[in-house]
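Design request, tokens follow.
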């Protein structure tokens, strides 16, 4: 239950930052999120070994939050979605260079993959890399946009909808490919 609450807090990060900045200093928000992030990381330690290099996310996010806390920087707080996207990009891209790919690792937990499955998961990992690049670029653009509600809307809602849409489309494509391969067999 506590992991679900912490996950919800991180999903709500843009909302909490946007409204929280009206009441507390950026350094306070950064320190609170850094503590939550450390707690979340160590409470989910059993999952850390499953996906290689996940510590990249821990170190980059903590560095950003530490900087934000020390510098009392609202701007640094708003870079969180960018840093998360770029961290995941580096993890996913590195897994393409040093297989297995992240998507292959995740898929292998649910089913045995043949050569076609490995190739497919590699392509899906590449698609996620493109998503992370686009997401980081848009998230960066929203930071510097005049209307900060755009930052809130994109990073707190639209990016999640796009991520869910990508997952849904991939799920449908995967089911279609499985049916096609089953009919050939």
């Amino acid at each position: 239950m506590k992991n679900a609450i912490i996950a919800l807090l991180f999903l709500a990060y843009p909302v909490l930052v946007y409204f929280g900045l009206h009441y507390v200093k950026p350094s306070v928000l950064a320190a609170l999120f850094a503590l939550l992030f450390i707690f979340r990381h160590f409470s989910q330690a059993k999952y850390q070994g499953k996906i290689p290099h996940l510590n990249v996310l821990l170190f980059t996010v903590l560095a950003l939050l530490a900087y934000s806390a020390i510098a009392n920087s609202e701007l640094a707080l708003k870079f969180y979605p960018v840093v998360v996207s770029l961290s995941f990009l580096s993890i996913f891209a590195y897994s393409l260079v040093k297989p297995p790919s992240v998507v292959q690792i995740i898929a292998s937990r649910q089913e045995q993959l043949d050569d076609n499955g490995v190739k497919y998961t590699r392509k899906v990992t590449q698609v996620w890399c493109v998503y992370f690049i686009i997401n980081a670029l848009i998230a960066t653009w929203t930071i510097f946009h005049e209307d900060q509600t755009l930052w809130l809307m994109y990073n707190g809602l639209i990016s999640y909808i796009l991520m869910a849409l990508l997952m849904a489309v991939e799920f449908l494509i995967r089911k279609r490919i499985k049916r096609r391969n089953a009919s050939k067999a």
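Comment from the thread starter after seeing the answer: thanks! The chain has a mean pLDDT of 92.
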